[in-house]
Design goal:
Elements (H helix, E strand, L loop, with lengths): L2 H18 L6 H16 L5 H30 L4 E8 L4 E3 L2 E10 L2 E9 L10 E10 L6 H8 L2 E14 L6 H19 L5 H9 L7 H10 L9 H14 L4 H18 L4 H18 L6 H15 L7 H25 L10 H31 L1 E3 L2 H28 L1 H26 L5 E3 L3 H19 L5 H21 L6 E5 L6 E7 L2 E8 L3 H13 L5 E2 L1 E3 L5 H4 L2 H4 L4 E2 L2 E4 L3 H11 L3 E4 L3 E5 L2 E6 L13 E6 L3 E4 L5 H10 L7 E3 L11 H7 L3 E4 L12 H9 L3 E4 H4 L2 E4 L1
Parallel strand pairs: 4-6, 11-13, 12-14, 13-15, 15-16, 20-21, 21-22, 22-23
Antiparallel strand pairs: 1-3, 1-5, 2-3, 3-4, 5-6, 7-8, 9-10, 9-24, 10-11, 17-18, 18-19, 19-20
Helix pairs in contact: 1-3, 1-11, 2-3, 5-6, 5-14, 5-15, 7-15, 8-9, 8-10, 9-10, 10-11, 10-12, 11-12, 12-13, 13-14, 14-15, 16-17
């Protein structure tokens, strides 16, 4: 049956090829090539496995081509079109920055599509409600970034944006998905009443996979400490559920299958049929069927079958990070757990009997081997998608996973009891809160251990990661395997990478990094042993804080000398609160007009906040930062603080979001020098970075912090032309990514 594994590998590779790289015109020729190659290979026994994979590639290409023609093309034709929609809500609406959003089902060209609708106003919509209005549709093509791939991986191929008025009518009839959403909301309400407020977000995430109420600090602690997987409903949760069902049915195979399969289906529906939980439920369902019919169960075959079924239903699930992590973690456990476990047990000799020592050794080696084997294939994905490699994850898993099993079962029991006896449910929830707090505290404490994680924002860490996998490949190819030597070489390589990451920035007197935060601004200014941050805002507050923190941590910097916010708009200051949970600072400077924000920040930081009502200078050994106060008025953009970073090597000017008028006020009230680098005002707006400013400061280089395809059209063509006329060298984060300037 391992032939199914090779077929699935080929099928998945073809789907990935089409989803990420392959133009439609290349599909037919490749189908013919793969079919011919597989036909020749199947005739020769030594090549049957790769030939089966090539056959899978051909079948995958055929299937993707058909899926594109039947399912994706009608959605693609709707891209950019505006038309009247009649949609049925499949879930509850939720608030966004600009209104609300809801998942719904629409009929397009005779086919039902799952869409996500964005409304301009805050509306409360329930599953089954009918939504009527005009929406502009956007097709979630693969080249639109990771969030579009998230939508595609979950079967959402169209996004709708409200145009005009929208009417919502209550609906009575509900399908399976809508009823599952209603049940999920009822479970959430029971959990909210049963558990203390400080642990409820974790409880909701653990049982339902809903991390929307988990605060940034906790979520980051779980990611850095290497146990983020426990709050993303996956195989761990399904295996615990299966264990509970098996215990309740006394492992009677007929009774276990009779109760277990409906429980798995219900759990998957309540969890939203996410790729990870769907994969796990299919595999456990196959295990139940194997037990029922007394057939052999093969983990790799079951994993292959689950992957193939999901790819057939939606070939674009291959782009889902959840699917990739779920499949790779299980594959790693199946392939590497046993040899790692045997190697870990080798120093203890033969482990016999049921003594406490023997049980502890088995528990220790099993937990560590499962964690390490899962990490082997998931670490590259975490590095690519999240830029993080947890070094302390094995320790955190060892300290917490044993208690998570009991917590998960306790949450389910509390939920069942709380539905009938709310008071008793509250007592159970209060008791269960203590082990939950232990998990939360453990994650937070271990995430603060330097370095709990390393980050691929450092090129040296990225190189080290490649080096580790070269060592792993050599180990696998060796006849006499010496994992201890390879482990030692990997540790030495890590130490060298960390030393280089921390030492390299000290080679320069002046360092400036314009971070690629999308449509926003965040700039690091460094000289000598001083590090200042100018602004902390971008497309998403959490992502901005992550990028700032990880850029600094990858350089061995755990403390900022100061944070200067030019003004308090979200695209300049939205990520500050999140950043302060990861990075300490001596000083926070804000414009004098930001009175409300000052009080909030002072409460949080204990008086580190100062307002700049008049020009001030921050002096240090190798230079100074001159901060020009706002000129008054009601416009926050014109009130932006301006910063002149003056060192022995160069001068750098930042003007915030000031327009031509604000720049004129700056020039008339201050004497500005010629500068080496100018940060273009207002993300490259045509109304900023005026000719007068350019003539005054005469920059050699102009840097623009703007997001890709932003709705404001930044940077404006008029500005680019103006900079070209002045002979400036232009760098843009939307094209160049993060920009590093060293002198």
């Amino acid at each position: 049956m391992r032939i199914l594994m090779w077929l699935t590998i080929g099928f998945g590779a073809a789907c990935a090829l089409c989803a990420y790289f392959l133009p439609v015109g290349w599909i037919l020729p490749l189908i013919l090539v793969f079919l011919l190659a597989s036909g020749l290979g199947l005739c020769w026994k030594p090549l049957r496995r790769p030939a089966t994979a090539l056959l899978g590639c051909a079948l995958g290409l055929v299937w993707f081509c058909g899926f594109y023609t039947i399912r994706l093309k009608p959605a693609d034709r709707s891209d950019g079109a505006s038309f009247m929609l009649y949609a049925s809500a499949s879930d509850y609406s939720y608030e966004t920055k600009y209104g609300s959003a809801v998942d719904a089902c629409i009929n397009l060209d005779g086919q039902d599509y799952q869409v996500r609708l964005y409304l301009d106003e805050k509306k409360t919509i329930s599953p089954g409600d009918t939504i009527e209005g005009t929406f502009r549709m956007t097709y979630t093509t693969p080249d639109q970034g990771k969030f579009s791939r998230y939508h595609q991986g979950n079967g959402v191929f169209l996004l709708g944006y409200q145009e005009g008025s929208v009417e919502v009518d209550s609906g009575d009839e509900k399908g399976l998905t809508q009823n599952a959403s209603v049940l999920r909301r009822k479970i959430q309400n029971i959990l909210r009443k049963s558990f203390p407020e400080d642990v409820f977000p974790f409880v909701q995430a653990l049982l339902l996979g809903d991390d929307s109420e988990l605060d940034y600090e906790t979520d980051t602690a779980f990611r850095i400490s290497g146990i983020r997987h426990i709050i993303a409903v996956s195989g761990l949760h399904v295996s615990i559920l299966f264990g509970l069902v098996s215990s309740l049915t006394f492992r009677k195979r007929y009774l276990t299958a009779l109760i277990g399969i409906p429980c798995l289906l219900l759990f998957a529906a309540v969890a939203g049929f996410t790729p990870s939980v769907t994969r796990a439920c299919i595999m456990v369902g196959l295990m139940l069927l194997a037990q029922l019919f007394q057939r052999e169960y093969d983990s790799l075959t079951a994993l292959s079958f689950a992957g193939l079924v999901m790819l057939i239903c939606n070939p674009l699930v291959i782009t889902s990070v959840s699917f990739q992590l779920s499949m790779s973690s299980v594959a790693g456990i199946i392939m590497f757990r046993e040899p790692i476990c045997n190697w870990l047990r080798k120093p203890f000799g033969k482990i016999k009997g049921k003594s406490l020592k023997a049980k502890l050794i088995r528990w220790y080696t099993t937990c560590v081997s499962v964690s390490l084997s899962a990490m082997i294939l998931t670490t590259p994905l975490c590095a690519i998608y999240f830029g993080t490699v947890s070094l302390i994850g094995v320790v955190t898993n060892l300290l917490t996973l044993w208690v998570v099993t009991f917590i998960f079962g306790g949450i389910m029991l509390t939920c069942l009891v709380g539905a009938v006896l709310p008071g008793v449910g509250g007592v159970l929830g209060a008791i269960l809160a203590y082990p939950i707090r232990y998990v939360l505290l453990t994650a937070k404490l271990l995430s603060k251990v330097p370095p709990a994680s390393v980050y691929t924002t450092s090129a040296y860490i990225a190189i080290w990661l490649v080096y580790v996998y070269i060592l792993l490949l050599i180990l696998l190819l060796q006849r006499k395997k010496e994992p201890g030597n390879m482990l030692a070489a990997g540790v030495v390589g890590l130490c060298l990478a960390l030393i280089l990451s921390w030492w390299e920035p000290t080679l320069y007197d002046t360092k400036m990094t314009v971070l690629d935060v999308g449509q926003g601004q965040s700039i690091l200014l460094q000289s000598g042993d001083r590090t200042y941050l100018v602004d902390c805002g971008g497309d998403r507050d959490a992502d901005t804080a992550d990028l700032v923190a990880e850029t600094l941590l990858s350089q061995g910097i755990y403390h900022l000398d100061g944070i200067i916010l030019t003004h308090m708009d979200a695209d300049h200051a939205g990520g500050l609160s999140n950043l302060l949970t990861r990075m300490d600072t001596d000083l926070i400077l804000l414009p004098a007009e930001a009175s409300e924000d000052v009080e909030n920040l002072r409460t949080r930081t204990g008086g580190l906040v100062q307002t700049v009502g008049e020009n001030m200078i921050l002096r240090f050994e190798t230079g100074e930062i001159r901060i020009f106060a706002s000129s008054g008025g009601d416009n926050s953009n014109e009130n932006s603080l301006c910063i002149l970073f003056d060192t022995e090597k160069c001068d750098i000017l930042v003007t915030g979001d000031r327009s031509e008028f604000g720049e004129w006020l700056l020039m008339t009230s201050n004497e500005l020098p010629k500068v080496d680098v100018l940060i273009a005002g207002h993300h490259g707006s045509k109304h900023s970075t005026s000719e007068e400013l350019l003539e005054t400061v005469q920059p050699e280089i102009v840097m623009i912090s703007a997001g890709k395809d932003n709705r404001y059209g930044h940077p404006a063509p008029e500005l680019i032309k103006r900079l070209e006329d002045f002979g400036c060298t232009v760098y843009r984060t939307d094209e160049n990514g993060t920009i590093c300037y060293r002198r």
